[in-house]
């Protein structure tokens, strides 16, 4: 959710990074329809072999101590209660948190219907403020490989940022995982203020989407 300081004259910065919600000079007429970047992801999808249920992999050669230790080094110690009979991993994004110094954390719970706040902005953040975005998520059933975060932001119908960040590969476990993004600073100035629309997706190496949400947020002169 990176938001960079705006240049004089109302121009947005031309830099795009692997963080969330930045402002970029690279504009397009994109909406919530798939972008060219999304198409590239589909074309670059690797051709992998058939998936095997993690439980089957763990139980195979379970009497071989050396193999058991080797598997634990690769995937860690897995709680079999979090492992199912099917090969597909299950990833549930529990919440997104916006942290800003000297402010109470804004914990944004993910609704079941994927509509955070259809009647208004999901959150508001002050211009020129430092912030950090934190993801909490849980993985069950099987290993998820190459989980990544994609975020696209529009202002007045024009795409101002398209960001991708790799979160990593995760084994099933009872406790949630937490990923903390680098600290950023929201832009400031009259042209930076206003309402933004965004689409956030969490997908893996197989381009399986675990969460896609569309929402709006505001940048204001003061905290609300």
Automatic annotation (TrEMBL):
The keyword Cytoplasm applies. Keywords: Cytoplasm. InterPro entries: Ig_E-set (IPR014756), Rho_GDI (IPR000406), RhoGDI_dom_sf (IPR024792). Its main location: cytoplasm. GO terms for biological process: Rho protein signal transduction. GO terms for cellular component: cytosol; membrane. Residues 1-10, 17-28, 56-66 have a biased composition (Basic and acidic residues). Residues 1-66 are annotated as: Disordered. It is found in: Cytoplasm. One of its GO terms (molecular function) is Rho GDP-dissociation inhibitor activity. PANTHER family: GENOME ASSEMBLY, CHROMOSOME: A09, RHO GDP-DISSOCIATION INHIBITOR. Belongs to the Rho GDI family. This is Rho GDP-dissociation inhibitor 1.
